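The aim of this short unit is practical: by the end, you should be able to scan a pair of folded records and say something sensible about each. We start with the first protein, listed as its amino acid sequence and then its structure tokens.
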Amino acid sequence: MQQIFQQYQAHTMDPKMQEQLNTPLGKSEGLGKKDASFLEVLITKLKSGELDPFNPQTLFNHDVYDKLSEEDQERTDLTAINLMSVIKQIETLWNQSHQPGFQLQNLVDTVFQMKSRFEEKHGDVFVI
């Protein structure tokens, strides 16, 4: 295995190949209305400090969360950590370009899907 790494250690990627690899697979139509609205909510809450990516507790709708069983609260805590990880990536990308590129679109959709699936089972536990 070590030989394989040594064999390609000095390899450089052809610029045309790198450009091809960086191109999204599908044609991007931009954010849909639902995703654009969701992104706006996220960015607004991040800028106001209502959401803090380093504090998953800020993601909770405590009216619902506090009524959950301990086991469901633990599930919610873990989901919140995962959501906040992706939300932090969204915040970073948004601050860099303020444009909804394909990476940002994918991350927004990921957060929306994670949140929606979780809330189908556990109620409206998140403020987003």
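Turning to the second protein, read its sequence before its tokens, just as you did above.
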Amino acid sequence: MSALPFITLGLQLIGGLQQKRASDRAARAAQEAGEFNAQIIERDIDLLTRQRGIVNSNFLVEQDRASIAFEREIQGAAKAGFGYAGFDMSSGTPLAVLRENAREFDYETKVREFNNQITNMQITDAQEEAQLNAQLSRMEGGMAAASARAQGTASMINSFGQAAQFGYEAFEAGLIGED
């Protein structure tokens, strides 16, 4: 009786197990790649949070500067001009001008607040999109891992089936079995 059929049978079984191990390694690599990509995407969420802090800080500084500039430059210039011209500041046109300036300033302040809110909404949307992309990356990694595992299992089952068929045919042909 020749050892060749036993060697062939053993090699088929070993080949199937090696394909399964290789597929399992590929599955781990796919899972790790998905997680790595998700972590990079989540880093963007932190950067967006920092960006929000900077935008809001700049908004507050801009509001303070605008208030000071309004009082000093616009209202101060109007008061000085009317006072220099000898107008009574307590009534009439000078007071109407100062009120109009204040209304215009309030409008500009509301526009700046609205723009800041829009910017914050855009940052929130970008954060949500990044979070969804991170989840998608993890899902894709899991899907690729599951696919690789399934492929490895199918290869192992196929090689075991081929080995069994070879063993059966070798037994029928009298190459292995009873002596």
